[in-house]
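ESCALATION

Customer reports they have been waiting on this structure for their group meeting. Please prioritize. Original submission:
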Amino acid sequence: MKPTIFIDGEAGTTGLQIRQRLEGRADISLVSIDPAKRKDEAARAELLNGSDIVILCLPDAAAREAVKLITNPKVKVIDASTAHRVAEGWVFGFPELAPGQRDKIASSKRVTNPGCYSTGAIALIRPLVDAGVLSPSYPITINAISGYSGGGKGMIAEFENEAEPTYTTVPFRLYAFEQMHKHVPEIQKWGGLSLRPCFAPSVGRYAQGMLVEVPLHLSLLQAGPKIVDIHAVLKKHYAGANFVSVVPLEQSKAIKTLAPEGLNNTNHMKLFVLGSDTSGQARLVAQLDNLGKGASGQSVQCMNIMLGLPETTALK
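Update from on-call: job pushed to the front of the queue and completed.
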């Protein structure tokens, strides 16, 4: 029999994207709840317990409640919310995180999908920490910009509403000034950091795509690395990866500008090592689709792994 997949919250931005990526696949069976019964706890519980894999695309509190409704020990869960990203008993759903991470995802019944910003930040930071180049106590700063789809239905409605006074006048804006953004705990934990990073996110007037940047002072790093050394660490870490690639240094040097929308509608992420030994500073940049590798695409990648399928199945 085909494995059954239930997306709880399929009407949301991430849920819709996941469904679009799964529709038409002959190797799985998608099940849905009657829209009129979305708030019917008994009806939801029946689907939650009757599916092989449940993908939660819900607000945090609702995701926690959904997990409580699952009593069938055979059901596997992928949670796309923030609810369980640093929780005990949950495997972090970034297959490229470290050696053995795919195996952990494959054998787990509880996988928590990373946030979009977190995927880019951790991809840049964790390999350097593991290699002993970046101290866990380094004062990390993360600058990032995302398309407005990352803010969900509310932000999408705001940015696409022509009646808004700022509709045509504000190209992008900063937010999360209190330094309590929900992605920071997972970046710190899964990035291997002992010091809480300073995170400066922004949102642009475009739908999707993102850039996540980590600037570094080479003189403050361990073992005094040069740009080529940092690049070598990342290249080695992601060697053979299907969806994460490290852009060659010569290609990066030729770049005059970098746009956040370059990988839209894919599950790919590109990592750039910019800067110079002369300046003694590096700019590490991750380019990805906040709705792809940063959300729905990564969920499907993890689902494939949990089903024992090639992780690239039905992903561009």
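Sent to customer with the following note: The longest helix spans residues 116-130.
Escalation resolved.
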